[in-house]
Structure formats: structure tokens, C-alpha cells
Amino acid sequence: MFRKIAIPVLAIIAFLILWEALVRVNNWPDYVMASPSDLPQAYAKFWNLFLIGSWQTLWRTVAGLLLATFFGTALGMVMGFSRTARDALYPLLVGFNAIPKATLVPVLALLFIGEHDFNTVLMAFLISFFPIAVSVGIGLSTLEPEYRDILRSLGASKITIFRKIALPKTLPEFFGALKVSVTLAFIGTNLVEIISPHGRGLGALFLSGQTNSNYPLMFAVLIALAVLGIVLYYAVVALEKIFAGWADTGA
To answer: What phi and psi, each to the nearest 5 degrees, are found at residue 184?
Structure first.
């Protein structure tokens, strides 16, 4: 446990030291590249905006991620158990995922005018469900037929086969995809917060810093986003330990 906590903390400290050294060696002013030592002042000055913006960004991201989890899992199950559905849906999913999501923000803003919260949650969902759907679909489609044949010969129903064999086998792939989707959901949330007019959250605070040439504030927002992403990532890791801890090889 100590090793799992100490190593990431030391890595973050080393990154901050290298960042500070890079700025100081190159004598970059804070309007070119803010250093870690510039950030505490920004947090102290705008602490209330950071608290409000962090909460707004976090709950929208989590809401979009939950929708992506349920929808992606359901879609993955359909593709995993039906070859026809898999052949039909994969090209559509790949094509949709290839579309730059920044181009969808104006479209959503026009379709749902004034619904900023809905648009933000929807973008977080749209950008993060793809890895979950694909991983669940692949995990179920590669289920060994021998297991299914043995259970069927013993009189097991399809629901029993899914619950006893397919679901446990898919959990490692599911949580692996969920870790990727966490970061993608934050990207979707911040796209809307930055691009959409009258945005709120940390993305809007970043845009405000950019408009006012307040580079320490901009970098402080980026670090705040990174911290939220790390917190949500480790929340997924904790769930993985509970539901799929058996898959951890300890390597």
C-alpha cells in the first residue's frame, strides 16, 4: 500500500520540480509559461471560483460518464452476443468516433439552445462511451465456446451463462476501458465549457484567464483539471479492486 501511494506522489513531485527548473533555466516570464510557484497565488486569489467551477465540471463529467457506462455496456452486450449487430454497428461507431468532437459543440449548442448543463453532460457521454462499448463487445465475443457448451449441457440458461462466465470474464476489459473513458469524459466536458458561449465550470475559468492574459490562472485551471481526473481515475481503480480484484496479477 505504501509503495502504491509513495511512487505516484514522488512522480508528481519530480514532475513539478522539472517544470519549475525548465521555466527558471529558460527565464520564461509568467505570460509565456507559468511555473508551479506561480500557481498558489492564483488559487488563493480565485479560490471561490475554483470551488464552484470544480464542482460544476465534476458533476457534469460524472453524469456523462455514468450514462456512457450504462449505454456503452448495453451496446457492447448487443455486439458481443450478436455477430450481425457487431458487423453492422462497428463501422458506425468507428465513423462517429473519428469525427472531431469539437465540431459537435456548435451543433449541440444550436440543437439545445440555452441547455448548457445538458449539452455538457451529453458531450461527456458522446466522447466516452466508445471505449466501453468496444471493450465489452470484444470481451463477450471472444468468450470460449467450450464454456458455453458445457453449461448448456448442464441445463444452464443464457442468463446464467452470462452471469457466471461472460460477465466475470469481461470485467477486466470493462474497467480498463472505464479508466480511459474517465479522461475522455473530462475532455468532452471542457470542450463545451470552453467553446460554448456562456460556459461554466473550469473550462470557462480557463477561457477567462486566456481572455485576460492571466497565464498563472490558466495553468492553475489545468492542474485543477488534472487533479480531478486523477481523483476520478483512482475511484475507478477502487471499484476495480472490489469487483475485479481477482484479475490483478500483482506485477
So the answer is: -65, -35
Q: Which residue range(s) make up the domain with 170?
A: 57-247
Residue in 157, 176, 198 with CA at minimum distance from that of residue 248: 176
Q: Residue 75: CA atoms inside 13 Å, Cβ hemisphere, count?
A: 19
Cell numbers describing residue 159: 442468463
The CA distance from 169 to 139, in Å, is 7
Q: At residue 33, what is the residue type?
A: M
CA 201 to chain centre: 16
CA dihedral for 189, 193, 194, 200, sign (positive or negative): negative
Q: How many domains does the chain have?
A: 1
Judged by phi (left if over 0) then psi (alpha if -120 to 50, else beta), residue 144 lies in beta
Q: Are 188 and 130 within 8 A, CB to CB?
A: no
CB 190 within 8 A of CB 228: no
Cα angle 101-178-66, degrees, rounded to a multiple of 5: 75
* Sole residue written with cell 442468463: 159
The pLDDT profile of the chain, 251 residues, written as one tens digit per residue, is 667 778 888 998 999 999 999 988 988 887 778 888 889 999 999 999 999 999 999 999 999 999 999 999 889 888 887 888 888 988 898 898 888 888 888 888 788 877 888 889 999 999 999 999 988 888 877 777 776 677 777 776 667 777 777 777 788 888 989 999 999 999 989 888 888 766 688 998 998 888 888 889 999 999 999 999 999 999 998 888 888 776 665 55
Classify residue 170: in a domain, yes or no: yes
Say which CATH number the domain at 141 has: 1.10.3720.10
